[in-house]
Amino acid sequence: MTQGEKITVENGKMNVPNHAIIPYIEGDGTGPDIWAAASRVLEQAVEKAYNGEKKIVWKEVLAGQKAYDKTGEWLPNETLETIRDYKIAIKGPLTTPIGGGIRSLNVALRQELDLFTCLRPVRYFEGVPSPVKHPEDVDMQIFRENTEDIYAGIEWQEGTDEVKKVIDFIQNEMGVDKIRFPETSGIGIKPVSKEGTERLVRAAIEYALNEGKKSVTLVHKGNIMKFTEGSFKSWGYELAEREYGDKVFTWNEYDAIVEEKGREEADKAQKEAQDAGKIIVKDAIADIFLQQILTRPKEFEVVATMNLNGDYISDALAAQVGGIGIAPGANINNDTGHAIFEATHGTAPKYAGMDKVNPSSVILSGTLMLDHLGWREASELIAKAMDKTIASKVVTYDFARLMDNATEVKTSEFADELIKNMG
Ligand SMILES: NC(=O)C1=CN([C@@H]2O[C@H](COP(=O)(O)OP(=O)(O)OC[C@H]3O[C@@H](n4cnc5c(N)ncnc54)[C@H](OP(=O)(O)O)[C@@H]3O)[C@@H](O)[C@H]2O)C=CC1
Ligand SMILES: O=C(O)CCC(=O)C(=O)O
Ligand SMILES: [Mg+2]
């Protein structure tokens, strides 16, 4: 067995040894099928890109059903400690029961390790079947806040003593009389903080600056949820102007010019800012945004949004470029460099153990991981092999059912094909 070394971080700089140990969670449902395929592709890409000089040394950590069966715990503390210690991990999907049962282990991992950015890049691979006319116009990076919002699961069930206490408090201490059916309501709480918003928006703007993007769009439902989603928008604009004043032009500034000097002057100021290479920081209300990503996707590049909006938007956008089978993601703490890479999709239980589903989301999450480690040559090999394989129409069931004259292959065979096409 190859002996590996830990990835370390010193003064914010990541040191990646040639034989880097990377913890992985296999995942529930289709997780084992996908992981078997994805891990082979990632290993081979590193092997080929560096002629054996660099290697991934996998270290399994347990979560989900496998953890429960072996240890009696769904998310053992040892798993969290190992990921903290080794800095980087990659995972398959984990099941969350609807209604009762355990809360999301996926959310727990993000919260426990404070992985505040969920980065979900959405771009088109030539030849992938899509329901829209111009899927190639979609090239967006979703920065989804990953630790707050209603998604964090602070809620109380209808009929419990806890929910009665909360409803009594809201009605009697806060004077709220708008709970329509107080005797039969469940209650959920949606915390959205200034700190949480600022660190997410900062990560999005930094990304836009580093990658030469032209805009960052803050997506919110601030007209209805004024002090959570509305504040997300205001705090985002304030941060952009305060920390990046000379590099951005915001729609907040635009509105102030309209007020003072009229729209023509505001348009002129925005045009000047664009010509000077500044990033336009704008915003969109979530409902119309979901229409506009379909009708004019070219207008959006980097998107910063809250947790639940980001969850909806990332599945919707994935559909535009071929579906959830090819939608990667990364959960990152941009301050410490800690990260867990994972697909956007879930465990797809009806296909578990059938060697059937598309492993591309986890494979592409792996390429994000390789980029994060600075092993770009390996991630480029995979991206090229993905282009070549899809162009040759050798695909898993999800693409095959939408393509003419495709050859449908199993999860493991798709991995074989990618490895063959790495050249
Ligand atoms: N980060 C995580 O670990 C996540 C976990 N989950 C959890 O997963 C479980 C199942 O959730 P569910 O809502 O069914 O969502 P899933 O994403 O698991 O599956 C929904 C549908 O998406 C398609 N799909 C999913 N994965 C793939 C793939 N690899 N290749 C091709 N198609 C795919 C299938 O569509 P079709 O039937 O059309 O073929 C599938 O039926 C739940 O417990 C949920 O909480 C959900 C999301 C993320
Ligand atoms: O944790 C879950 O079960 C669902 C998570 C999810 O949908 C997501 O992160 O996109
Ligand atoms: Mg989701």
From TrEMBL:
Q: Any idea which residues bear N6-succinyllysine here?
A: 91, 233
Q: Which family does it belong to?
A: Belongs to the isocitrate and isopropylmalate dehydrogenases family.
Pfam families, alphabetically?
Iso_dh
Matching entries from PROSITE patterns are given as:
IDH_IMDH
A Gene Ontology molecular function term for this protein is: NAD binding
Query: What domain of life is recorded for the organism?
Result: Bacteria
* Keywords, comma-separated and alphabetical: Glyoxylate bypass, Magnesium, Manganese, Metal-binding, NADP, Oxidoreductase, Tricarboxylic acid cycle
InterPro entries per UniProt: IsoCit/isopropylmalate_DH_CS (IPR019818), Isocitrate_DH_NADP_dimer_prok (IPR004439), IsoPropMal-DH-like_dom (IPR024084)
Q: Which reaction does it catalyse?
A: D-threo-isocitrate + NADP(+) = 2-oxoglutarate + CO2 + NADPH
Question: According to the record, how does the cofactor bind?
Answer: Binds 1 Mg(2+) or Mn(2+) ion per subunit.
- Its Enzyme Commission number? 1.1.1.42
Ranked from the top, the taxonomy reads:
Bacteria, Bacillati, Bacillota, Bacilli, Bacillales
Stated name of the protein? Isocitrate dehydrogenase [NADP]
EC primary class: oxidoreductase
Q: Does the keyword Signal apply?
A: no
- Function according to Swiss-Prot or TrEMBL: Catalyzes the oxidative decarboxylation of isocitrate to 2-oxoglutarate and carbon dioxide with the concomitant reduction of NADP(+).
> Quaternary form?
Homodimer.
Specify the species: Allobacillus salarius
